[in-house]
Amino acid sequence: MDGIPGGRGLPNDDRLSPAGLRFSVLGPVRAWRGGEPVPAGSPQQRALLTLLLLREGRTATAAELIDGVWGEEPPSQALAAIRTYASRLRKALGADVLVSVAGGYAIRPVPGALDLAVAQELAADADKARSAGDRCAARTLLGEALGLWDGEALASVPGPYAESQRARLEEWRLQLTETRLDLDLEVGCHAEAVSELTALTAAHPLRERLRELLMLALYRCGRQAEALAVYADTRRLLADELGVDPRPELARLQQRILAADEELARPVEAPAAVAPAPLRPAQLPAAVADFTGRASFVRELGERLAQAETSVMAVSAIAGIGGVGKTTLAVHVAHAARPHFPDGQLYVDLQGAGARAAEPETVLGAFLRALGTAETAVPDSLDERAALYRSTLDGRRVLVLLDNARDASQVRPLLPGTPGCAALITGRTRMVDLAGAHLVDLDVMSPDEALQLFTRIVGEERVTAEREAALDVVGACGFLPLAIRIAAARLAARRTWTVSVLAAKLADERRRLDELQAGDLAVKATFELGYGQLEPAQARAFRLLGLADGPDISLAAAAAVLDLPLYDTEDLLESLVDTSLLESASPGRYRFHDLVRLYARACAERDEQPPTERAAALSRLLDFYLATAAGVYAIERPGDRLVEHLEHTRHPGLVFADRTGAQDWLYTEAPSLLACIRQSARDTTLRRAIDLLWTAVDLAESGTNSREYEATAADLLAAAVRCADRRAEARARVALSNAHLIAGRFDQADREAAQVVAAPAGPAQDLLPVCWADNIRGVIALYQNRHAEGRELLTRAIAHFRTCQDLPGEASALCNLSRIHLATGDTAEAIALARRGTEIYDAMGNSLRGANGRYALGLALTRSGQLSAARDRLSEALDTFRQNRQRIWEGLTLCRIAEADLAAGRPTEAAAGAEAALSVLHDIGGRWRRAMALTVLGQALIGLGQPGRAQACWQEALVHYEDLGSPEASDLRVRMASVAAG
Known about the structure:
The protein is mainly alpha-helical and 982 residues long. The protein is built from 43 helices and 14 strands.
């Protein structure tokens, strides 16, 4: 390194120290002036400089310098040499920096000029921050201090003084690292700490504090068996090496882990006197300024909430039809009750009225993060999240507002369950099956309340002049608060209208529905006025956009639905936002409230002429998505001929200039795109829907939307079977087979792919599904040790791909065939096949698939012992997978790099890589791939002398393999028995 070390106190400004000098001892001993390096001279001269710098301005005599540089056997001309070194340093540094004092020498200290002094200052500040309860600041400060090290302190400096100081600084560095890791665990960053602690315990196996931190980190990650195995390994090692038992603190930690101590699973809390204030979420939506009426309900609910501190749990559920004002009432009451809940208020819209209500586990994840739980500490399962949520709320007084709930089953996991907390729930149905809930049935407003609300919005002067007309207006709105608000807002925005004009418009019963009807139809009356006031182009946009499924819609997609230029579409959508019939979710994206969407669809069914325009609008949307996704696919996979075998589209899609923009579009649009595919699972659009699923395969392979992709593929397959469309069925089965393969369900994947080849019709007209079915089945045969069958399948796939002139497909099959040869011991042929596949990808500029080729080549090179080349190819693949957001492949490649490190005798690096792979594959890629990473981690731990923890990893992997019926289970049992036998 030739640059200036960064960090606090080492600014690149000559005014901050004489001559702008800076010194570094936490690494090679170096000096800089104004950004330029100053020669430090020979090793002995650097030793002299080191001694003077570390004396912090105190004078060193000639005898002390000689002893520090040479020790007990100095050369005969040692004094002359010392004077020469000092003279050279004075010339380089300046006479005002290195001075002669009473027969000795000293370097005048300059604040901020020595990296060690800066590190000491940062460490002291960290101690103060920790004492004050600010752990995050303490972690940051310690990170800055440790960041000043550039390798070994006093590197390559000779002499006994430098040797002793080097040992002292290394010990201090370890102490700082232990303190920072301790803080990591205190703030809940235990998952991130595991990998670093694994490497540190390997480097310092007898350092018990590191072992203690590793045990605690593993336990808090839910890896209790591994934590206990660390203790067993430590006890054995101490006995073998030193003949002693672990220190009492380590033994007590083991006992607490064995007892599953709940307190141990939580981050350590600082003393109450210095503890930082806990997070107090304040998530309530803004209360409306013109809240009107509902006095009896406000009093009733307020009294229930005020009693929360003394009751087991106060739960009130408000029920009523859509638009009756449930949310407005709940938010108003919640704000009034805030003094009773000083520890915070949580809020969520559960979207119970929509087609896809919010999942309780998703909501719990958001709540836990809002309450201060670290992202890495949020468990996976619903039950675990609910348990942690209740534990987090224990002893706190928090109000939870659960808005727009679907039913009691959605709500139950979200209830606090402890005294002092309370829950307010709104929903369309009465939750009679919610035990202990106080049920409130909210009806429409009284005529007086309705008129009062209308007056507050429109203005007293206009209403007083036309009181009877105003009563007619609120009566026509069915006294529903939302309908009154919409009507009043329209009138308030049109100063030229009179109340009578508005009343006359509402008097036409053909333009509104009877508010007394049940369910959603009653809600439609609240939107009739707004829709009736739209211009024809606005009304058409409102109707057609409401047809599209999905949580929201982009401006470009909306333009396709409406068959209009982008700018005209934007003007229409923004005008609909102004009417409150449409919401602007974010710049360039729009969404309907779930009830408004239902109303818009009813309008489309009633008003859209000709009726075929509804189907045409959705067809244009499907065309837009297919054309755009095909372009994204072509950018990511240049030369892939799939784009030549897609259904024809009449509406164009977006065009991207680079891969980043294309990927951003695909992942942003994923929920809406998959919803469009599901909505298009009917005879006239089925083939295009399946082609869209094929072109969006990155949503599955990245792991980002694997489950949704799989569910969509299953829906399309069912539709294809219903429609007796063999071509569509074959492609849908390939997509579903690939989704099963990604999830590690090999038997199901094989069954779907086998049916593609066995189909009595279809493949002759469309060979592409057959190609990919054989390719997928060949991979599955590899995983299941059916090597002869896999060779046959992949050889056939190569022939099919060549018939189709599909070079990327051929390259894929070649790389997969390489792994078959590798598994059967033909390493040379495996390398040749993988290189051939990679060369095909590279010749086409297909970097993403080229990464798959390098992955296969890296495996073969590892097996052949060409470990440096193997790691290079795998590292290249890893970079590409990360750039293309292919998380599953990123995790697999990290695992393979760990295998290469193992083969090269680098167990520490292998353990870190396997830990990183486990982190990536935590909830994607299926159990088989996680088991593979656990197996590799166990092997690395054996190399680090930690057999107990290795066995724990292997035991977890074995459970996965046995549940999946994987052949790896038998090999792993043999390995475990061998290690156990010693």
